[in-house]
Amino acid sequence: MTEEAYPPITTIAIIGGTGKEGKGLAYRWAKAGYHILIGSRQPEKAQAAAEEICLLAQEPLHVEGSHNPEAAERADLVVVTVPYAAHRDTMTMLVPYVQGKVVVDVTVPLVPPKVSRVQMPQAGSAAQEAQAILGEGAWVVDAFQNISHEHLLHDEPVECDVLVCGGNKAAREIVLGLVEKTGLVGWDAGPIENAVVVEGLTSVLIGINKRYGVQSSGIRITGVPRG
Ligand SMILES: NC(=O)c1ccc[n+]([C@@H]2O[C@H](COP(=O)([O-])OP(=O)(O)OC[C@H]3O[C@@H](n4cnc5c(N)ncnc54)[C@H](OP(=O)(O)O)[C@@H]3O)[C@@H](O)[C@H]2O)c1
């Protein structure tokens, strides 16, 4: 797959987009001009979330609610924001709808109650599990694991960078473009094997939040010119 060969992205589905992180990403991308399909197991819940986002933005946005499979089927690119406990079933459901597409996996393999302890799955990461389930016809890219939803549902600049990793460089480039559209700074963090660090960092940040009494600590890459 090459970046040029990928069709232009106009429609983004967010599976589990009724949740905290999904709504935040939907808000940012809708404001950047994308057509957003909020996916849910319950279409009416998805529609309510879509209306909530439009109300918050106070401007006309192209956001609609949909059943998860329909959203995935209609989209040019699919983003998954579900709790880890629902990750395997969600990815399995998505198999027929995401072939030939980039799948942005935002899932962090948290295992409650010890969510501030890194507990990676045997495959190495949620992203590697997703790639194994979806097969080689879909390109899984990890991104946004370290961005708290608290940062996304408003228009302020975010003091946290986005690490992007996945097995296909062109797919990573596509996702880096989408990161830029959210107003955040993204970095190519390399192959999918590096997802262990990106996903694991979230537990470190959750622990820092608790120990320092803050809501949403983040990370910044230094030593590389920005812009
Ligand atoms: N929250 C954050 O700040 C944050 C930051 C970085 C990464 N993440 C990661 O992003 C993912 C989503 O986080 P979140 O806080 O947005 O989660 P959430 O609000 O708890 O859940 C997101 C959505 O997942 C769907 N869902 C829940 N249980 C499900 C199940 N058993 N099967 C299918 N769908 C199910 C629900 O949608 P429906 O009921 O509408 O189907 C729900 O609205 C997690 O993996 C989390 O670790 C979160």
Apparent shape: globular
Write the element-wise H/E pattern from the N-terminal end onward.
EHEHEHEHEHEEHEH
Instruction: State which percent range the strand residues make up.
Output: 15-25%
Bound molecules: NADP nicotinamide-adenine-dinucleotide phosphate
Q: How many distinct beta strands?
A: 8
Helix fraction, binned, reads: 25-40%
Number of helices: 7
Rg estimate, integer Å: 16 Å
Give the strand order, joined by hyphens, for the main sheet: 3-2-1-4-5-6-7-8
- State the major sheet: 8 strands, mixed
Q: pLDDT below 50 for ≥5 consecutive residues: which ranges? A: none
Structural class: alpha/beta
Q: Describe the oligomeric state of these chains in a short phrase.
A: single chain
The chain-level mean pLDDT equals 96
What gap, in angstroms, lies between the N and C termini?
27 Å
Considering the chains and any ligands shown, give keywords for the structure.
binds NADP nicotinamide-adenine-dinucleotide phosphate; 227 residues; 7 helices; alpha/beta; eight-stranded mixed sheet
